[in-house]
Amino acid sequence: MLDPRKLRLLRELARRGTIAAVAEAVTFTPSAVSQQLSALEREAGVPLLERTGRTVALTPAGHLLVEHAQAVLEELERAAAALAAVRGAPSGPLRMGAFPTAARVLVPAALAELARAHPALEPMVREIDPADVSGALRAGELDVALVHEYDFVPPVTDASLATEPLFAEPMYLTGRRTLGDARHDPWIMSKPDTLCHTMAVRACQAAGFEPRVRHHVDDFDTVLAFAAAGQGVALVPRLAALAPPPGVTLTELSLSRRTLAAFRRGYGEHPAIRAAVAAFHTALTGLPLTPSNLPSSRPGPPLSRS
Predict the structure, then answer these.
(1) Which residues does the UniProt record annotate as the domain HTH lysR-type (predicted)?
(2) Domain ranges of the chain
(3) How much is the CA Rg of the chain, to the nearest whole Å?
(4) 4-82 against 170-256: fold identical
(5) Which of 84, 167, 207, 274 has its Cβ near the most Cβ atoms within 10 Å?
(6) Cα 205 from Cα 153, distance rounded (Å)
(7) How far apart are CA 203 and CA 200, in angstroms?
(8) How high is the pLDDT of residue 77?
(9) pTM tops 0.85
(10) Measured between alpha carbons, how far is 195 from 205 in angstroms, rounded to an integer?
C-alpha cells in the first residue's frame, strides 16, 4: 500500500526539483525526505528517482506515480470535506491567507461576517505573497487563500489546487490621463520578477515605450505616497486606491486585476471553505468592485506577487 504522506513528498519533488527545497517546504531534514522517498520506492517496487551526484530527477515511473498521486490526494481531500459536512456546522481553526491590499480592505469585513454566521469557526489570517500560496496550501499551512492575476500576464497554475473567482477591479494610472502620456515620466513599480512588475512593464510596452523605473516599491499605500510626492507615475488597482492621498489624480484604464479564492483541489466543498468564500462575497457588497466573470473551479491559482 502506498503511503499518501510519501506521495505528497514525491509530488513536492516534482514541483520543486530538489530534495533540499522539499525539505524546506515541509520542515523536514533533507535526510528524512530522502529516507521517505526511498521507502516509497520500495513500496512501489520500481525506481522512482534517478540520482546523479547531488542531483535527483524523477524516472518515467516517478512521473507516472505523481499523476496518480494527485488524483489520490484529491480524493482524500474530497473525503475529508464530505466527513466535515456530515459533522454539521463548520467549527475549529480556519487558516486563511491574503495579500496585503485584500488583508487591509476586504478581510476585516469577511472576518466579521464569519464571526456572525459561524461563531464556532476560529479564522486565523496570515498575510502572504500570492507567489507563496501554492506551497502553503499544499503543505497544509493554509486552508484557503486570496490570490490574483493581471491582464498581460498569463497566470502560472498549480494542478493540485483549484480557484473560485471573487471579483475584478480596474487598474488606475496616477498623474496622467493615458499610458502614452507617461512615456517620459519616472515610474514607481514593484520589485522585478513579480507579477505586478511584469504587468506594468508589458502595459507600457503595449503603449509603445519602455518605462524608466525609478523606484521599486511593493506596498501600494507607499506607491501612492511616492506619487503624491511627485516621485513618478504608477499603476494601482482599485482596491488600493479607494482613499488616495491628497494631490494624487487617478485615471481608470482598460486593464484589470482579478482576485480568486484558492484551496486544495477536492477540498472546495468543505463547510469551512464554503463559509470563507461566502464571507468574502458578503464583504464585497460594501466595496465598489465588480464580481468576476471568470469560470469557477479553474485548474489552479496564479503564482503571483503583490
Answers:
(1) 2-59
(2) 4-82, 170-256
(3) 22
(4) no
(5) 167
(6) 13
(7) 5
(8) 85
(9) no
(10) 15
List, in sequence order, every residue forming a beta bridge with 168; answer none if it has no partner: 258, 290
State pLDDT tens for residues 33-70: 888 888 998 888 898 998 877 778 899 999 899 888 88
Q: For residue 286, is pLDDT > 80?
A: no
Cα 93 to Cα 117, 237, 303, distances in angstroms: 15, 31, 25
Q: Identify the pLDDT of residue 11.
A: 86
How many residues are given for the chain?
Answer: 306
* Cα-Cα-Cα-Cα dihedral sign, residues 170, 171, 177, 179: negative
Burial of 67 (0-12, 13-18, 19+ CB in 10 A): exposed
Instruction: Let me know the angle formed at the C-alpha of 193 by 189 and 197, rounded to the nearest 5 degrees.
Output: 25
Confirm if 211 and 189 have CB atoms less than 8 A apart: yes
Cα-Cα-Cα-Cα torsion 141, 114, 295, 256, nearest 10 degrees, comes to -90
Q: Distance from first CA to last CA of the chain, Å, rounded?
A: 42
Q: Which CATH code, of 3.40.630.10, 2.60.120.760, 3.40.50.790, 3.40.190.10, is assigned to 170-256?
A: 3.40.190.10
Burial category of 279 from C-beta neighbours within 10 Å (exposed 0-12, middle 13-18, buried 19 and up): buried
Angstrom CA distances, 210 to 173, 182, 186, 205, stand at: 16, 10, 11, 6
